[in-house]
Design brief:
Two copies of one chain form a homodimer. The first copy, chain A, has 25 helices and 28 strands. By secondary structure, the first copy, chain A, is α/β, with parallel strands linked by helices. Chain A has four domains: 238 residues, NAD(P)-binding Rossmann-like Domain (Rossmann fold, 3-Layer(aba) Sandwich), CATH 3.40.50.720; 167 residues, Rossmann fold (3-Layer(aba) Sandwich), CATH 3.40.50; 78 residues, ATP-grasp fold, A domain (Dna Ligase, domain 1); 112 residues, ATP-grasp fold, B domain (D-amino Acid Aminotransferase, Chain A, domain 1, 2-Layer Sandwich), CATH 3.30.470. The longest helix of chain A is centred in the middle third of the chain and has 18 residues. Chain A starts with 5 loop residues before the first helix and ends with a strand.
Chain lengths: 706, 706
């Protein structure tokens, strides 16, 4: 199905004429009556109610069938019981209606019968050029043009935002959840119109400045990401992803597979596309207000002016929690401020204005200090703290209007965020809201979170460079294709030693590995390789080699080799009785301070997810792992190394030489290229990859192919 | 100074008579005038204004000196400039006034002159029996008896809470910060009355049901904790600790010292005393409402009734984030509910009532389903989700009054928490507030956080058992005292090998260690111990043995020993040229899968903090460390093991045998006893302690004594 065009989109959100099919004769309070709601809202479109009785409702002429309508309406809103939906859709098609909304529920959201009905509807519209929203949608609300099609009425404060959701609560509750909205579309079961369609149109609609997504799950993730990656350069995209269950990853065979939960995949996908994921509903609401109010944020240096030293300290804690800085004020600023204070008080940031303000004109001093703070070139944003109490005649509203609002208007390049203690008193919230230049949040943590997100959008998302994914030309694609074909012919699903060959073909340094069929061959090969050596069992049945006793490191001589060989074979026979033993692999033993894991897991919607982490205990116990969607840019590969909790171990830790992170980043990039080139590889582990000061080398690897 | 008595406390918060010293003649708006505020509030106490002019103010007779007053007032409120405070205090003492509040600032909070002034004031009141609040306090507010002494006026909603703070903003902003209060006391610089004093009185004041503390720092931490540990069994104590700077820990010499930041100490102290630490101001406010509303919470199983499936999913995410459970409904409950739903809809928890409610009597169904949910014995609390919109005549207030409030009154044993989307509309917040049986929070995360805290208080703090600290009788205290005395005589501050002797004297299993003065002795001793051995340098100047090349593990024979010996001496000479080398220590090499660190750091306020963590990389990179104040109960020692992020490694991980956690917990307890018995030990490290299936053994240790 082609993408929803802008013309089709306007047909849905602002039609000239609309038919409501299945209008109930029961009207009045509590009846969830779309016609009644539209009339109440003063809908400008021509409305054609349809039901089988054909008797007037609410003074409106009702038609017995859509086929009888005097014109072809732009939009049909179908509200009949689920068994009647297919018939209604077919009549709409016959009439030539191009936009359908199916509100009715009981389809993919319900039982097998419902799923079958939804398939039939999809088949009916396929190839007709008619587009369908739903089924199981609450409809859509266009507050910008006052067009609501929904069986609930709602008072939506119009804002320059677009909402795409999978639950109607984000339409009817938008006043609270997203602080109002411009256009909201519930895609419901998304049998036709989906996230990508609406996102693409919101991206083009000039009245939409910020896009909100509520997502429970997605089909067609690739298209969605591609569109989002473009749109996010122009407009902030905020997502609230709900349903964080991790059941999906339990069936994984590889280490990478089991490390990659469903939620990690979404996290990686959102990051790739420049989508900002909201921690909770409160952040969703706060960020909506912030992005529609503040133009930008130049840096992380925050000035604080406060009527309470204690509250200033709380604000410092909040800034530090969100990675922001307490601005160091310039000498000039400090000198200009000091004259307001008694000599025993040394002014600094936070500017505790209480010692200056007592028994003087509190408001004037507050405003003056705020001006001086905003003038400081070393200050990027200002938090203004004071109380909403009208204490001793001090009028907090005057601080808002003559201070916060007037200064925010004067310097639109620097966000001014008041923390008014008691914000909801005395109409301060409302006054701020209406000013359009500052927002009111009730605590410093939420203020700092907003600032951190403004910084993130304006510095890391909006103007991000168009880096191309890494593509290495020296890869031997045919060689890999041959190995995979061969495995498939033999119905092999889990690849072991062959994976090192595949990696080598893709330019990843792998350890030289020799297969010895018996103990005598092992002596011979170990002599050629040179002690110390590593010995590993070769058996297709042994999946977890270390756990089964199939790995021995640092074998120093023939005596140790002989003993290790016997012990290993005994261990495998005991632990994996069904194992067919092909012999043992021998490798040079390379003790490495650092061993990492690079892997991949193919996600059905988003394609290969690249996994990178410190090896062993770090990954398994501390979950010190990071994720990205393939393919990777050079920047992304480097970022993955830097964002491990234990990343300092790469950069010359405790006197160890720094690791060759260039080679490491390259290996990560090559793995990404490999799994993009070969979708047959559903899971891949390099575990471990030894990382040294000079080079990196894959010591063991495994893959699952389909 | 003795603790503040209840009689003294009432003298402060509800005096029969009060003098205000330093009353300004300038009255009117913006003058921060305590007399004016008291008169406006209708203060019941007899008020005696004092200033040097002695002219009437606001129709009140003004005295020139406190010495001229016609009676001895219960309380004096001193507001003069800092240089006049000492004189005013002395006159109050002369008059025989027993309670003083010094509002003036510029003392310990300011420069050296101010610090000296504060000392003089303290000396003046010492031994007189007069108590002093401040200086640098905003005063106190007693909303229960309508007595406010403060230079700001404020409208405080009276609640059954007591507030102790170090910043006046928690008094004047209490409507917002703690959702009102009963009695609020700003201890200011706490030159006399401190946290422990007020906490003790709040604990005894029957009108106070919950105690709120704002703390920036504390002196006299031990007393405070002792009182808090008693009070927290009766009343929830909530603390907002601000100022999380970590500068204090940088000077530490030991590993334990550097791992223990100032904030960890507070964290451990609060836990010890059953104090709940608030994450932010929002939690502070929410928990105040919750503890004054809900009686308790029996378990973690939460039922959800929702008008939106999507919002139900968001609520599940929130429950999981805070360790709560989505209740499994009983079969009977499900059967009773199913009759409200169409046959294609299978009811479950969350109970998505939309399919039942459409086109029926939404409110009646909602209330009925809520009743059934509350009746289920497998449900401990219920979250009710619906929208505040008056959609299609659906009246959300009716759901509140006839549903939430009436059901919450019927079943006070099960908290009912509404998530009303758009809570601030239509007066729903106010209606809930006034009901006294349910609170309104704007998102599921805050609701889940409240439930988790209710569970914590009622299951882990309120009725916690009175376990006695571990005291082992078999310790050799004299032996340790001798070692420490000896070190002091020799001006040794950092103890090395002696620490193993100290540990052994306290019943901790240590590895046998022998000192070899030269290579020949090393051969001899290694032979006696039996290869493989560990060799460590013995030198008082070598503090970081491993980093300086002073540790060699797994030496297998004489050849390796000889080589290692030469290399070690060369390394030490190169790395620590000033080192005096006493020889090398030899120990049996005991490879251990698990190595932990047990340590201690003495905090000036709270005494010894016990540190426990996985050794090496776990502690240093992943900060996988936990903290408790000494002494420890057996339960606390076991908890420390269990709460490491990597704790599963102790319990038979990846086929390894389970570690002897009994022996490990005992060792932790013995370390705690040691550092309690010997306050001279300011820092202590056992690093590593090898943990095996049978026993634990300290391999190396270090201590700092003062």
């Amino acid at each position: 199905m082609a993408r929803l065009t802008l013309e089709q989109y306007y047909n849905f959100i602002d039609p000239k004429s609309v038919t409501i099919i299945g209008v109930s004769e029961k009207t009045g309070p509590g009846m969830f009556h779309p016609l009644q709601n539209m009339l109440k809202d003063g809908c400008q479109a021509r409305i054609y109610p349809v039901n089988i009785q054909g008797r007037d409702i609410l003074g409106q002429k009702v038609y017995k069938s859509v086929l009888n309508l005097p014109e072809v309406p732009d939009l049909a809103f179908i509200t009949v019981a689920r068994n009647a939906v297919l018939g209604a859709v077919k009549e709409c098609l016959q009439k030539g209606i191009k936009s359908l909304i199916v509100l009715s529920q009981g389809f993919d959201d319900a039982d097998e019968e419902g799923k079958a009905l939804q398939r039939e509807i999809s088949q009916a519209i396929a190839g007709t050029g008619t587009r369908l929203l739903g089924p199981n949608t609450l409809g859509l609300i266009n507050a910008l043009d006052n067009f609501h099609v929904s069986f609930v009425d709602s008072d939506v404060p119009p804002k320059a935002s677009g909402v795409i959701c999978q639950s109607g609560v984000f339409l009817v509750g938008s006043a609270d959840l997203t602080a109002g909205m411009g256009v909201g579309i519930d895609i419901g079961n998304a049998s036709d119109i989906d996230f990508a369609d609406v996102l693409s149109c919101f991206g083009q609609d000039p009245r939409i400045k910020i896009i909100d997504i509520h997502m429970e799950g997605i089909r067609g993730g690739g298209d969605f990401l591609e569109i989002a990656a473009q749109v996010s350069r122009e407009k902030p995209i905020l997502v609230l992803k709900t349903g964080k269950s991790e059941t999906g990853s339990k069936a994984a065979i590889s280490h990478s597979g089991s490390l990659t939960g469903e939620d990690h995949v979404f996290e990686a996908a959102f990051r790739k596309a420049g989508i900002m994921r909201m921690a909770d509903l409160e952040e969703f609401q706060d960020l909506n207000k912030a992005f529609l109010t503040y133009k930008g944020l130049k840096g992380k240096r925050v000035g604080i002016i406060t009527i309470s030293g204690g509250a200033g300290i709380a604000a410092i804690d909040a800034l530090s929690q969100y990675g922001l800085e307490v601005a160091r004020l310039s000498r000039e600023t400090l000198e200009r401020m000091q004259e307001f204070f008694p000599p025993w008080f040394q002014v600094t940031n936070p500017v505790d204005m209480w010692p200056a303000g007592v028994k003087k004109e509190l408001k004037e001093i507050y405003v003056r200090l705020l001006q001086i703070l905003l003038d400081d070139p070393q200050v990027d944003a200002v938090i203004c703290i004071y109380g909403a109490n009208k204490m001793s005649g001090f009028d907090p509203m005057a601080v808002i209007t003559e201070g916060v609002i007037s200064e925010a208007k004067r310097r639109t390049d620097k966000p001014v965020l008041p923390w008014v203690i008691g914000i909801n008193q005395y109409g301060i919230s409302r006054e701020l809201e209406q000013s359009g230049v500052a927002i009111g949040l009730p605590n410093p943590e939420r203020i700092a979170r907003v600032l951190a997100r403004l910084y993130q959008y304006h510095h890391e998302i909006k103007d991000r460079s168009e880096e191309k994914p890494l593509v290495f030309q020296d890869v031997q694609r045919q060689l890999v294709a041959g190995i995979i074909d061969n495995a498939r012919k033999n119905s092999v699903k889990i690849l072991g030693s062959e994976v090192l060959e595949i990696l080598q073909a893709y330019g990843i340094n792998v350890i030289s590995t020799r297969l010895a069929g018996n103990k005598e061959e092992a002596f011979l090969l170990a002599g050629e390789i040179g002690y110390p050596v590593v010995m590993k069992i070769s058996s297709p049945q042994v999946v977890h080699k270390t756990d089964s006793g199939g790995v021995r490191l640092n074998i120093k001589n023939e005596t140790e080799l002989s003993l290790a060989y016997d012990e290993m074979l005994a261990a495998i026979k005991a632990n994996v009785p069904e194992a067919r033993i092909d012999g043992v692999f021998l490798q040079k033993y390379q003790p490495a301070h650092l061993e990492v894991i690079i892997g991949s897991k193919r996600d059905e919607e988003f394609g290969p997810v690249i996994v990178f982490g410190q090896g062993g205990i770090h990954a398994e116990v501390h979950k010190d792992v990071t994720f990205r969607l393939a393919p990777l840019t050079a920047k992304e590969a480097r970022e993955m190394i830097g964002e491990l909790k234990s990343s300092k171990m790469f950069y010359g830790w405790r006197g160890m030489p720094a690791a060759n992170t260039d080679a490491l980043a390259e290996s990560i990039g090559r793995v990404a290229q490999l799994v993009v080139d070969f979708p047959e590889i559903t899971e891949l582990d390099i575990n471990p990859l030894a990382v040294g000061a000079d080079a990196v080398v894959a010591l063991d690897a495994r893959a699952v192919i389909k």
